[in-house]
Amino acid sequence: MLPDVYRHLCAFLDVRYRTEDPHSNQSKWRGLHSPAMNMFIRAAQYACMLLGHVLERQAGPGAARAALRQLEASMSSGRKLFRLGNMVHAMVAARQTIQLPDLVPRICLTASNLIRALYFICDTVLWLKSVGLLPHIYKWKWRNWATKCYYYSLLMNLTRDLYEISWLLEQAAEKEKAKENSFPWDTQDQDLICLETERQSQPFLPLLYCTLKKHPPLLLDTTKNLCDLSSPLDRLGIYKTNPGIIGLCGLLSSLVGILTIAKPHLKLK
Amino acid sequence: MEAWVRFSAQSAAKERVFRAAQYACTLLGYTMQKNGASAELLARIKQLEAHMSLGRKLFRLGNSAEALEAAKRAIHLSDMVLRFCITVAHLNRAMYFACDNILWAGKTGLVPHADQEKWSQRSFRYYLFALIMNLSRDAYEIRLLMEREASGKRPKGTENGHQAQVDNGLQHLALRLRIQLRLLGHVLRSNPPLLLDLVKNACDIFIPLDKLGLYKTSPGFVGLCGLTSSILSILTIVHPWLKLKP
C-alpha cells in the first residue's frame, strides 16, 4: 500500500524545480530544494491535523488518531530542525525591505521581518529544549512569545496587503472617473464593464473582487496571511476554533506557498 | 549573512550541514565516552543525533525520485563505462532512499510493524553498492587521465632512456611504481574535483562497511569519516566548480 501511495503522490505533485546551473539545458529535475520541501511537509502536517480532527469527530479517538498525531509531531520537529538558520534569512529580508520606495510597505514589511527574526530565535530556543540541550527553560513561556511574534508579523503583512488593496481600489476609481470625463463609452473595455456594472449597484465586495482578480499575487498573499492567522488566534485565546479549522487553514496556506514557489510570478514583491 | 541565505537556498545544502553535525555528534559521543563522561550527557548527545537523523530522513523523502531522474539522464552519456557506473550508482541510491523512506515511516509510526533492523541493513547494502560504483567511476577516470598524461610525456623520451639502462627486475618494478605514483599524484593535483570525489567516496565507504559488519571500526572513526565527507560535499556546494561532472 505504501509504495502505491508514494507513487501516486509523486505523480499528483508532478514537481519540477529549477536547476541550480542556469546554463544547463538538461532536465529541470534537481531535487526538491529546502523551501519547497518545507512547504510540502507543512501541507502534509496540516492535512494530518485536519484528518485527525475529522476521524475523531466521526469515530472517536483511536489508533489512527494517535498515529496521525505522532506523524504530525514528527513532521513538526523535523521542520523545526530545518528552520534553524532562518533568523538570518529574516534579517537579510529586513535589510532589503528597508530600501523599498513606498513608506507604508517599507515600515510594515521591515517590522514584519524583524519580528519574524525574533520568532525564529524563540523557535530555536524551543528546539534546543525539545532536543534536551536546554532542559531548564519554561517551554510555555517561550512558546507564548513565539506565537505572539508570529501573530504580530502576520498582522504587519496583512496591513501591507490592506494598504495595497486600498491603493488599487483608489486607482480603479480614479481611472473610471477619468475615462468617464474624457472619452466616449467603449463597450469592449472589460475593466470598465466590470466597474460600471458594480458602480451602478454600489456594492463594495464585487469591486474588491474585480480588483483582486486582476492582481493574483496580492490575492494569494492576502489569502495566505488570513489563513495563517487562524493558528495564533487560537493559541493566544483571541478567537478559539478547533484543530479541524486550523488544519484546513494551514493546508490552504501551504498550498498557496507551494503555488508561489512553483510559479514565481505569482509571488507578491 | 547574504552568503548563508544563498547557500541554504540550494538543494540539500542544509541537509549536508545537519549530516556534518550528526556525524560530529557521533564523534563527540565516542570521544566523551572514552574520556569517561556522564551517562546523562552521552544520552543527550545520542538523542540530538537521533533527532537530526530523523529530521534529515523527513527532508529526504523526495530523493528517490531525484536519483531515478539522475539515472535517466546518465543513460545518455557517451562513454560506456561512465554510463554504466553512474547509472547503476544512481539506481542503487534510489533504492537506498526508498529503504530510507520506509525506515522513516517505521520510526514515525506510519508503518509500525516494519522491521527496522532488516530495512536498515538493506539500505546500507544499497548505499555500499552505490559507493563501490562511484569509486569504480573514479578509478576509471583516474586511469584515463593517467594514460593521457603518460602518452603526452612519451615523445619527450626521458623515461624510455631510463628504462633502457635498468636491467635488474626488482629495481625496474620499483622504478615503474614510482613513476606511476608520481603520475597519479600529478593527475589528482591537477583535477581537484576528481580528488575531492575520490576522498569523499573513500571516507563514505567506511560507514556501510562498519554498519554491515564487513569491516568493523569504531564509532569515532565512522563519525570522523562521515564528518569529513560531509564537509567535502559542503565545499562542492559552496564552490560548484569543485563538483565532478557529469
What does this structure look like?
- The complex is a heterodimer of chains A (269) and B (246).
- By secondary structure, chain A is mostly helical.
- Chain A is built from 11 helices and no strands.
- Chain B has 246 residues and is mainly alpha-helical.
- Chain B has 10 helices and no strands.
- Chain B has helices spanning 2-8, 13-34, 39-59, 63-74, 80-108, 116-153, 158-165, 169-189, 192-211, 219-238.
- In chain B, helix 2 runs antiparallel to helix 3 (39-59), helix 6 packs across helix 8 (169-189) and helix 6 packs antiparallel against helix 9 (192-211).
- Chain A binds chain B through residues 2, 6, 10, 15, 17, 20-21, 26-27, 29-35, 37, 40-41, 66-67, 70-71, 74-75, 77-79, 81-82, 85, 88-89, 91-92, 95, 130-133, and chain B through 1-2, 4-5, 8-15, 18, 44, 47-48, 51-52, 54-55, 58-59, 61-63, 65-66, 69-70, 72-73, 101-102, 105, 107-112, 240.
Considering the chains and any ligands shown, give keywords for the structure.
A: 269 residues, mainly alpha, B: 246 residues
Structural class per helix/strand content of chain A? mainly alpha
Structural class of chain B: mainly alpha
Calculate the terminal CA-CA distance of chain A, rounded to whole Å: 42 Å
What's the count of strands of chain A?
A: 0
Instruction: Please report the total strand number of chain B as a whole number.
Output: 0
**Biggest interface, chains and residue tallies:** A-B, 40 and 41 residues
In N-to-C order, the SSE pattern of chain B is HHHHHHHHHH
